[in-house]
């Protein structure tokens, strides 16, 4: 009992001492007065400087411009046919494109029937020729035009930077690019000039470049000019940084292409090996391999092989195509 009493008294004394250290000692030692004096000296009046207000306003304008551009791009998920034709560099109307596609499909259908193909096979060939082939050609022309645009865009931005540093307005610098740049850059910058001439602001005219040329680099140019027109700043420095970014992206794309060429060559060899082997076997012993399309089980096996080979080629294509 005595030991318990002594222990309780000891812990009670420690508790009282701790409370006194926390609450009583600061007032006795003068730490509280020192802290109050330091806080009174270090306290600043809550004034808002003009520089902070300007920076906050510019940040809000930049965020608003980026949000507007993201909203506009999100709404343009489904591209109409006339826009796709202009992106491919064709001046056709959708009606003309549809007519030519229908004529091509009917022509291939008639040729397939004349050569003795079944109605289902001829219809499949006609559909592929009338619907798939024209759109694939349209996509091919669009990609080729975009590559030419990307190859000439950094030099065009450098011309604009040099014109601005020489004292020319932005619109006159764009005119210089439109006069001397190769196609399709000349056409796109002429469209900017024509759009601005009819009364549209220059930042909106440059932002519409992304509608005709749906590339991140074109979007970067529109964003830089739009932000500078709304919030001000050194446009020559911003465009110079943009030119550096464009060249770095081009170097990265070429580096990725060089590093993926080995994988592309391997995929091409693996994908072409089965048809080549089938052709060689057919040339040497046609009766041996003819069972694949004459016997019902052979047809099933051939269809399965085509399915698995297509799946393998699709997987390899996804593995060697890089987005950055």
From TrEMBL:
GO terms for cellular component: plasma membrane. The chain crosses the membrane at residues 100-133, 265-285, 297-316. Its main location: membrane. Residues 158-282 form the Type II secretion system protein GspF domain. It is a multi-pass membrane protein. It comes from the Bacteria. It is found in: Cell membrane. Keywords: Cell membrane, Membrane, Transmembrane, Transmembrane helix. The keyword Secreted does not apply. PANTHER family: INTEGRAL MEMBRANE PROTEIN-RELATED, PILUS ASSEMBLY PROTEIN. This is Pilus assembly protein. The lineage of its organism: Bacteria, Pseudomonadati, Pseudomonadota, Alphaproteobacteria, Hyphomicrobiales.
